[in-house]
Design goal:
seven-stranded parallel sheet; alpha/beta; single chain; binds nicotinamide-adenine-dinucleotide; three-stranded mixed sheet; Rossmann fold; globular; 334 residues; 10 helices; UDP-galactose 4-epimerase, domain 1; 14 strands
Amino acid sequence: MTVLVTGGAGYIGAHVVRLLRDRGDTVVVDDLSTGDASRVADTPLVQIDIAADDAVEKLTAMMHEYAVDAVVHIAAKKQVGESAERPAWYYSQNVGGMANLLMAMESAEVAKLMFSSSAATYGLPDVPAGTLLDEDVVSRPISPYGKTKLICEWMCRDASAAWGLRWAGLRYFNVAGAGWPDLGDPAVLNLIPIALRALTNGEQPKIFGADYDTPDGTCIRDYVHILDLAQAHITMLDYLERDDRPHEIFNVGTGAGASVREVLDQIARSTGYDVDAPVVARRPGDPPMLVADVRRIREVLGWQSTKTLAEMVDSAWAAWATTHGEPAVPPASG
Ligand SMILES: NC(=O)c1ccc[n+]([C@@H]2O[C@H](COP(=O)([O-])OP(=O)(O)OC[C@H]3O[C@@H](n4cnc5c(N)ncnc54)[C@H](O)[C@@H]3O)[C@@H](O)[C@H]2O)c1
């Protein structure tokens, strides 16, 4: 059985590929738009832009060539702000890419698919303050990026009804850390890398609003360690083999949030930097709390997170120099 990982040269994909190496044959499809070929080492990599006009033909051919049995579809564009600036391109990349992949899978008779979805599908959910988000909360995505992820889930469901696709979607919450020092997050888009970038540049990270209805006034998010997340993909591949699959959508988080201040405090402890973050105005569209209800993935798949916030920040910091080429030493020791 060969597993095709799209986006396998990216941050999350490279972790999944590394875990899959112990399991059997793996092949990666990536256009290297944000990925890096060195991250997949000797796993075969086929360079295809899944959103391109000739993608269906190329994907179908490589699925036959590698005898692909299941697909882990991770490739996507993921920047919320960019998606608001270039919505049509985001739809063409994420939704168009998914359409091409599904057509190729149908034509090559590959019927198992795990899809990387996102907590961005929830958007601004209409729930009382402090509610954990379960998978049945009505999705109200606010960014074009979040909408593309929700549409992709619908596309999978329709393919399942039409030709028997066996699929499951993982809605990732805030992915953090590194499983190996050479696989850190190269993008500086989330709180931990943004804070590390600021501190290593001699600046302070900013807190966007400290007057939210949360215990310390700052926003709360659900951070999940990349290795826990990657392991959930392996569990999901086993799930797709089962005939009884009661659910298609699963949250992946810890079920416990951390506030911006708590994360910054941990960053100070992990790095040795003095963190004295100024509070600035709220950003529009930031809900006070986004934390996963993780009962479904625990009860149905037996998966649960194992790693702490300290392990996420420690590993992100250990990977920082390898990934960003900057010295990972705090001012006191460097
Ligand atoms: N990082 C997070 O916190 C997070 C949270 C929720 C969901 N996700 C989802 O997880 C997935 C991976 O995220 P990541 O953080 O690893 O991002 P990433 O940018 O590091 O990885 C994406 C990979 O997909 C490839 N790719 C992009 N467009 C492609 C295309 N048209 N054809 C072929 N390859 C293409 C890129 O080259 C890259 O290797 C994305 O689908 C993202 O939406 C990520």
